[in-house]
Amino acid sequence: MAVISNLKVFKDSAWLGWQMEANWTDPFLFLTYSIVKPIAGTLILVLMYMVVTGGETGNAFFSYMYVGNAMYMFVADVLFGVTWVIHDDREHYMTLKQVYIAPMNFYMYIMGRSAIKIAITTFGVLVTLIFGVMALNVNINLAAVDWPLLAASLVLGLGCICILGLALGGVSFLTAKHSIGINEGMAGVFYVLSGVVFPITILPTWAQPVSKVLPITYWMESVRRALEPEVMQELADTSGFDVTGMGGVSDLTMMLYLLVSVAVFFVMSIGIFRVADNIARKKGKIDWTTAY
Amino acid sequence: MTESYLMRNLRAVRGRAYPRLIGSTREPSWFVFDVILPLFTIAGYAYVYKFLDARAELIGYVVLGGAMTAFWLNILWSMASQLYWEKEIGNLSLYLMAPISRMSVLAGMAVGGLFETTIQAAMTLAIGAIAFDVVFSLASPALLILVFVVTMIALYGMGMMFASLYLLLGREAYHLSALMMEPVYFASGFYFPVKQLGFWAAAGASVIPITLGLDALRQIIFPGGAEDAFLSLNTEIVLLAGLCVVFMILARYSLRYMEYLGKTTGRLTLRWQ
Amino acid sequence: MQHAVETQSLTRVFRPKKKKEGDIVTALDSVDLQIGRGELFGVLGPNGAGKTTLLKILSTLLLPTSGKAYVAGFDVEKDLMAVRERINMVSGGEISGYGLLTVRENLWMFSQFYGIKSKEANARIDELLRRFGLTEKAKAKVRTLSTGQRQKMNVIRGFVTNPEIVFLDEPTLGLDVNAARAVRDFVVDWIREDRGRTVLLTTHYMMEADELCDRIAIIDDGKILACDTPTNLKRMVKMNSTLTLSIAGLNEIDGFDTIPGLNSYSQTKDVESSTTKLRFVVEDESCVSDIISKVVAEGSKITSLQKTEPTLEDVFIKLVGRGLE
Hints:
The complex is a heterotrimer of chains A (292), B (273) and C (325).
Chain A: H1 2-22, H2 27-53, H3 60-92, H4 96-101, H5 106-136, H6 147-172, H7 181-193, H8 208-211, H9 215-227, H10 229-239, H11 251-283
Helix pairs in contact in A: 1-5, 2-3, 2-5, 3-5, 3-6, 3-7, 3-9, 3-10, 6-9, 6-11, 9-10, 9-11
Chain B: H1 3-26, H2 30-36, H3 38-51, H4 56-80, H5 82-89, H6 91-97, H7 102-131, H8 141-168, H9 171-179, H10 182-187, H11 199-205, H12 209-221, H13 233-265
Helix pairs in contact in B: 1-7, 2-7, 3-4, 4-7, 4-8, 5-8, 8-12, 8-13, 12-13
Chain C: E1 5-14, E2 25-35, E3 40-44, H1 51-58, E4 66-71, E5 74-75, H2 80-84, E6 87-91, H3 103-112, H4 118-131, H5 147-159, E7 165-169, H6 177-193, E8 198-203, H7 206-212, E9 215-220, E10 223-228, H8 230-237, E11 241-248, E12 262-270, E13 275-282, H9 287-297, E14 302-308, H10 312-320
Helix pairs in contact in C: 3-4, 3-5, 5-6, 8-10
C-alpha cells in the first residue's frame, strides 16, 4: 500500500514538475531552449580547446573532455533541479507549507518534481553527444559501447546525484533566496575534482585523494569506459601511464563503489534533510520568504 | 524634468538600493554561495587550460572572466528577472503606481547589488590570481577604471532593457534569462579571446557590452592581452561609450512600451504567467 | 469643483491569448461614476464583479478598453505622473514588502518612492504606527508579523505618503474583528481630518460598506446596478420593518387589527419556553409604540423585543437576484 501510495505521489508530482518546466512557452521555443542551452555550454569548452590546439578535435583528448562535459550536465542540472523544488515552492509559489503538511512522502514529492528535470537533461545530453559526433568528430562507436555497464552506471550515478540533491534541498530550508548558488557551488566542486573535463592527475597531489573519495569521479570513469572504450584505450596507449588516475580500478570495483556511495549518501542525505527540516521547523523557516 | 522630480527619483534609487545593501549584511551566507563555491567552476576551466598546456595568459583570462560573470549574473537574476519576483510577491504594482521613473527602481537594484557583486568579483579575481599564479600588468589604473565604469553603465542599461520584458512576460522571460547564461559566456568570450570566434561573430557578440569590456580589460591588465584583442583599446572604449547611450535610450523606451503593452493586455500585474 | 474620481463609459474587456484559455471577459461594462472630494465611497459587489479591475484602472495599472477615467481631474491614460503623485492603494491580503527588512525600513523605503524626506517620513511612520498600535513592532522584521499586523503595516504604507485619494481594495480581508475594526476606525478618522481627502473602498462585506460609506455603488458583472447613500439604497427595497416580541406565558392577544400602520401579524406559542412569539410587519413605524402599549395593557410581560430593517443584503438580492458569495 505504501509503495502504491508513494508511486502515486511520484507520478502526481512528476506531472506537476512537467507543468512547471514545460508549459511556459510554445513547444517550438521550448525545444529550441532545450537544445541551444546545453550546446552553448559545451561550445565554451570546444572553443577553449581550439584556442590552444588550433582546432584539431578528432583525437582522444578531445573526446575524453567532450563526453565528460556532456555527462556533467546530469550533475549540474539534476542537483539544481532537486534543490530548486524547495526553493521554488517556498519563495515563488508559496505552496511549500501546504505540500509539507500533506500526508504524503515528502521525499517522493521532491523526486517526482525533479524527475522532469532529469528527463529534459537526458534530452540535452543526447543532443550534445550527437552534435559532438556529427560536427566535432567525437569518437563514440555504438558497436563498441558497453551497454550493460552504461546502464548500470547511469542508474547508480543518477541515483547518487538525486540523493545529494536531497541533502542540499534540506540545507536550503535554512538559507535565503540566494542560496540557490549552493547547488551550483557543489556542482563546481565535482567539476574540478571528479575528472569531468580533465583527468584528476592534473590536480595538485593533495587534491587527488579527495577526488578518489567522490562517487562522481567513479561515475565519470565508468561512463567513459562504457561509452567510449576505444578512446580510453587510446589514451592509455598514447600516454604510456595511467593518465586518468583511475586505470588501476576495475569495472566491478567501480560499480561496487558507486553502489556503496549511493547507500552511504542515502543515509547521510536523509539525515541532513531531517536535521535541516527539524531546525527549519523550530525556527519557523518552512514558509519564510527572503527576497530582497 | 523639475528639481523635485529629480530628487524624488534619486530618493527612489536610494530607497530601492537599501534592501539590497541591508540584505547583504543580514544574510551573509551569500559570501559562501556566491564567492567561495563559484571559485570551483573557475578552477575547472583553469585546469582545462593546464591540461592542454595552454599559455599562462589564457588561465588569467579564465580568472578575469570568472570574476566578471558575477556582474552578468547580477544583470540577469538580480535586476532583469527581479521584476518577475517583484510581480510575484506583489511589490511590482506598488512600484508602478509610484510617481517615479521605472529606471530609478532598476537603478536602485543595480546600485544596491553592486556592493555584493563587486566584492564577489574582487574576491574571485584575488583568490583565482593567487591560486593559479596569474600575473597582472597594470600600466594605467585610470584606464582600467574608465573601461570598467563604461562597461558597467552599458551593461546595466542592457539589463534595464531586459527588465522591461518582465513587465509583459512571465516565465518566458525567466527562461530567456536562463538561456542567456551559457550562450553569452560563449559568445562574449568569457573564457577565451573572443576574436577566436571570427570577426563577424565577435562583432555580433559585441552588442553585449561585456564582450568589449572583457576584451578591453584584458588588454589593460595582462601583458599579452593586446595580441589576443579583437579591436584596439581606443576603439573598444568608444564603442562601449556608444553602447551606454544606446542601451539607456533603449531601456527608457522599452520600459515604457512594455509597460503600455502590459497595461493594455492586463498582464502587468498578472502572477504565475 | 472637480470630482476626485470620474469615469465615463469605462469598459475593460480581457481577451485570452489562446482560445483554450477561456472566453472573453467583460470585467467592466460602461461604468459611469462620479466621486466627490471628501467622500468615503464604497463599491460593493461579489467576487469577480469588477471591483479590483476598476481600482487597477484608476491607479494606472491597467488601461481601459474604452471610455475615460479621471483621478483628481487627471486622465489616467495620459497624465500618469500627475495621478500617481496624488494616490495610493492598499489591497487586502497583501504580501508585498521584504521579509528581511523591519517594519520601519519597509515603510521608509516605500515613502522614498514618493519623494518624502527621511525625517518627515519617519515622523509620519511613528505617528501611524502609534495609531495602529504597532510602535513596539517598528524594529521587527516583516516576516515575523502576524497577518493582522502585516495588513496594518500595509495600510500604513498606503497612508504614509499622505495621498489625496486612497484606493482600498478589500482592506480588511482575512483580518480578525479587532484588526478590521482598527483599520475601519482609522479610515474614518483619516478622512474626517481633512475634507480634501477621498477614499474609494471596495468590499464584499455589507456591514462594512453600510457602516463606513457616504455612498455606495453596487456592481455585478462589470455593471453599476445602483449608486446612492446606504439609506436611499435600502429605501429602494420598499420592504417593511419587522417587529418581533416574545411575551411570557402561552396566552394569545387579540385586537391588533385596529392599530393603523400595521400590515400583518402572527402569534406562535413556544410550549418549551412557555413564551408566545408575536411577529408584526409594520408599514408605518409610528404603530410600534401602539403595539407595545397594547401588549403591556393586556398585562403581558415582554421578555424580548427585536426590530429588523431592510439591509444592504436585501438591496443586493433585489438588484442582483442572489446574495454575496
